[in-house]
Design brief:
With 642 residues, the chain is α/β, with parallel strands linked by helices. A five-stranded parallel β-sheet has the order 2-1-3-4-5, sandwiched between helices. The chain has a five-stranded mixed β-sheet with strand order 7-8-6-11-12, sandwiched between helices. The radius of gyration is 44 Å and the shape is rod-shaped.
């Protein structure tokens, strides 16, 4: 017991009214704490109180209802339950029997014990379902979960009664604050101190202290202790739903559905537990002389709230992050899990969409375009794996971040999920701390994708605007007005660029100097207008016949320059031949009818070790063009000699 617990109990014990077992029950508890006590001593002591004996035997049979052999004697109960579980059971029975009434007028003793007993019954069945704890002991923990309230009502009836008189309008945190102001401690601390005084294990003390506010518990998320705290809280919520008025029930039902998912209990399992506990509750109420009332059907209650608009109650999770809002699609066939995920995502500030299976999700994805999807693995019609594969088959959906939720933790299963297209995974039960950490990881990826997409869009817009402006400028300054080809100025700038690239990347570069044969005679015979048409015809032919990467320019007069990047001399000759033959195949139509055949001469030059400047390259091409003219025109000359 901690020093603080000692101080709390010392203050209460001075009053002499602290709720403790009396008579034989007290002796049994004291005896079972002794190391030298035998089972025979325990049997003999309990048997001395016939009423207690009957209750212990009946209680043991209810707790061990799955046992093949009924318990008929105290000796059987001690043997089957063990001394520790028996001591806890006797304590619970004695407290209920001795404290069904008390001095605090505002404290509803009947409701308190009904709620405590129901919490014990519910948590016992939940523990059996999840196999987290011994059902006999966890039942007593549920039964004694509110013993701090009983102690305050017993020791401080007037002061505690004033707090209770306004508690219906206050949160549990407000009630705790008033208790600390009034008494120096709160009911949860007192409950843990009483269990410590009765030598309950420390884990049970933690459960009693933390379960009313599991979100504030300091136990590590995902551990066995964390699961037990939340399971005990879930059992208390089920008791709330069973006993509260219809007007107060909806909010408790919705929280019950969400909190069940937190410990990986699906709605169908929750309904099954409630049905089993309804029958057992009647046995316990009769055994302890408590007024039993019929419990409402949980399945019917869930159906009712499904037909009513939901008021989303958002718990405050310390790990939730509100920095970046996303459109998140939750896909799960279980309402409890959907409710839990929706609450956590809304708490983090996200816009949440809901689907119950993969097929429904696909139709919503097309309309809503979510940025992140949280999907269960096992679902009817289309499961999470099939949904991932379908998503990744369409390019427009490949950027959606997908988190798959599963009970599977094997390496092979996780590999299967990632290969299907999942980006991350969560294992049930989902712990808020881990969930929000994984959500932030996905959020960073989604945000980065959006930022990149925005930057890409901006760059494309700027590029388009710049390109349009450049085109306008080039059209004015770098184009030849007659032929529409780039002019000599452009040719020289472009040739300088290509020359610089050859220096950095060791790339080839060639150029073709093209001259129209006998152009002066065309002007002299047919006039300058026909001469202009001849130049246009040659320009159009060169443009169509050139390769994609080649740059055709009007160099001046009847000369054209073709820049051939990444092209050696041999390839340049082939290119030049294609140009020459295409022009030779063209005929210039004359106004009076008929055609005038046209030819060109071409000089080819390639950058080499001896041609170390741009001027030298152009001189070599021009010299080769002159050689082609001298050789008879309508031909190509390549001078490979350095």
């Amino acid at each position: 017991m901690t020093p603080n617990q000692n101080n709390i109990l010392a203050k209460l014990k001075l009053s002499g009214r602290l709720p403790t077992p009396k008579g034989v029950a007290l002796e049994v508890i004291n005896l079972t704490q002794r190391e030298d006590a035998s089972n025979q001593d325990i049997v003999r002591l309990i048997s001395a109180d016939p009423a207690l004996s009957v209750r212990v035997i009946k209680a043991a049979n209810v707790l061990l209802s799955s046992s093949s052999r009924p318990i008929v004697t105290i000796s059987d109960a001690v043997t089957v339950l063990g001394s520790r579980a028996l001591r806890q059971l006797v304590l619970g029975i004695a407290l209920i029997v001795d404290h069904q009434h008390g001095p605090c007028k505002q404290f509803n003793y009947s409701y308190f014990w009904s709620h405590s007993l129901l919490t014990g019954v519910y948590v016992r069945h939940l523990a059996a379902l999840s196999r987290l704890a011994a059902v006999e002991e966890i039942f007593v923990i549920g039964l004694l979960g509110g013993i701090g309230q009983l102690a305050m009502a017993t020791v401080y009836p007037d002061e505690f009664g004033k707090i209770l008189s306004v508690s219906e309008r206050q949160s549990l945190e407000d009630i705790y604050r008033k208790e600390r102001e009034q008494f120096g401690f709160e009911q949860a601390e007192l409950s843990a101190a009483i269990l410590a005084d009765m030598n309950f294990p420390s884990i049970f003390q933690t459960l009693i202290h933390d379960f009313p506010q599991p979100e504030s518990s300091r136990v590590v998320e995902g551990t066995r202790e964390w699961k037990l705290v939340n399971m005990l809280h879930l059992a208390s919520l089920m008791a709330d739903v069973s006993l509260c008025s219809p007007a107060e029930r909806n909010r408790s039902l919705r929280r019950l559905r969400a909190d069940a998912a937190l410990v990986a209990i699906e709605e169908a399992s929750l309904v099954q537990v409630a049905d089993e506990c309804g029958r057992e509750w009647m046995e316990w109420a009769a055994l302890l002389n408590m007024g039993a009332r019929h419990l409402p059907s949980l399945a019917e209650l869930f159906v009712q709230i499904d037909n009513e608009p939901e008021e989303i109650v958002i718990p405050q999770w310390p790990h939730a992050n509100h920095d970046y809002k996303m459109r998140v699609l939750v896909v799960d066939d279980d309402r409890s899990m959907r409710a839990l995920l929706q609450k956590m995502l809304v708490a983090a500030g996200h816009h949440v969409l809901i689907a119950s299976n993969g097929i429904e999700a696909l139709s919503m994805i097309e309309k809503e375009q979510p940025q992140l999807i949280v999907t269960d693995w096992l679902m009817p019609q289309m499961d999470g794996i099939a949904l991932c594969r379908e998503l990744r088959s369409k390019p427009e959906n490949r950027s959606i971040y997908v988190i798959i939720v599963t009970m599977q933790e094997s390496a092979d299963k996780l590999v299967e999920a990632f290969e299907a297209g999942a980006d991350d995974y969560l294992t049930k039960p989902i712990t808020p701390k881990v969930f929000f950490a994984r959500l932030r990881a996905g959020q960073r990826v989604v945000q980065l994708q959006e930022e990149l997409a925005f930057d890409r869009e901006q760059l494309m817009r700027f590029s388009a605007e710049l390109s349009a402006a450049n085109e306008r400028l080039q059209g004015q300054a770098l184009s030849d007005a007659l032929t529409g080809l780039p002019n000599r100025r452009y040719a020289m700038e472009r040739l300088e660029q290509e020359w610089a690239l050859t220096k950095r990347g060791d790339r080839a570069l060639s150029c073709l100097m093209v001259d129209v044969d006998h152009f002066k005679s065309i002007n002299d015979r047919f006039g300058h207008q026909v001469g202009d048409e001849a130049l246009k015809l040659v320009a159009d032919t060169l443009r169509r016949a050139a390769r994609t990467q080649d740059v055709v320019c009007r160099y001046g007069g009847e000369e054209f320059l073709v820049i051939c990047p990444d092209t050696d001399a041999q390839a340049a000759v082939l290119c030049a031949e294609r140009l020459r033959t295409n022009i030779a195949a063209q005929g210039l139509r004359l106004q009076g009818g008929g055609e005038h055949k046209m030819t060109v001469s071409i000089g080819v030059a390639e950058k080499s070790e001896t041609i170390t400047t741009l001027e030298a390259l152009l001189i070599r091409a021009d010299n080769n063009l002159y050689a082609a003219k001298e050789a008879g025109r309508n031909r190509i000359i390549l001078d490979p000699t350095p």
